[in-house]
Design a protein that fits this description.
mainly alpha; about 0% strand
């Protein structure tokens, strides 16, 4: 009896291992393809800052291995981002057999939407936030101070902001999940709107540089995306409808 119980667990662990290996393989293959363009990727990433540096300034490398490690780290991060469709498919294939039909109808769209929103957060940071933020920060330097950013520090700073804006753009998904799982209700969240707005600005203050522009450009989208989540929650299936649907399927 114990062996019979262990068999499904072992088969699930084997399947999980295989899907993890496929995801890692996809990341490695994309990274190998991108390695010849590592310096070009870094140049693209640093373009928002380079546009605002004085003509006499440039980026610098203060560590011996930085000229290699910084582009390599960026290449690996880009490979992970580009392999998200494969990773998402592997995750969905693993969890889908254990879901009811009504759960499948909402879980996969939420997974897909969360990936799209994360990418949109990164694009928003790169095309909207970075030009404004770097323009302000470089102009704010005291007279006689040459702005020359280390390439490793710049990469770490940018990746931190990418993740901050990527996760901030997940607010609609979090809102929908809270309502769908019954943890809270749409009406309750609407009543807590003032606290959500304050919380968005606090998060913006903690995750972005100490300037009003970047803080506001993170907080305002979080608030608007929260409102989007509340609006989309109108179209979530009711709990009683889901129960009836699952009971009908079980009866069939």
């Amino acid at each position: 009896m114990q062996n019979a119980d262990q068999q499904p667990l072992i088969s699930h662990l084997v399947e999980l291992r295989d899907r993890l290996l496929r995801g890692i393989l996809a990341i490695l293959l994309i990274a190998v393809c991108l390695l010849p363009f590592a310096n070009d990727l870094y140049l693209l990433l640093s373009d928002p800052l380079l546009k605002h540096l004085p003509e006499t300034s440039s980026m610098i490398a203060t560590e011996v291995a930085s000229p290699f490690l910084a582009p390599f780290k960026l290449t690996l991060s880009t490979a992970i981002l580009l392999s998200m469709p494969v990773l998402l498919y592997q995750l969905w294939s693993f969890i889908a057999p254990g879901l009811y039909q009504h759960e499948k109808r909402i879980v996969f769209p939420l997974m897909f939407a969360s990936t799209v929103l994360f990418v949109l957060g990164i694009l928003f940071a790169y095309f909207v936030v970075f030009p404004l933020m770097f323009g302000f920060l470089t102009q704010a330097a005291p007279e006689g101070v040459a702005v020359m950013t280390d390439i490793s520090h710049y990469l770490n700073f940018v990746l931190k902001l990418f993740f901050a804006f990527g996760f901030a753009f997940e607010v609609p998904i979090v809102t929908l999940l809270l309502i769908w799982t019954g943890i809270t209700t749409r009406h309750s969240l609407k009543e807590k709107r003032p606290y959500v707005i304050v919380g968005a600005f606090v998060i913006g203050m903690l995750l972005t540089p100490p300037d009003v522009i970047s803080q506001s450009l993170l907080a305002l989208p979080m608030w608007l995306l929260f409102e989007l989540g509340l609006f989309c929650a109108r179209f979530l299936p009711k709990k009683n409808e889901e129960t009836e649907s699952s009971e009908t399927e079980d009866g069939d």
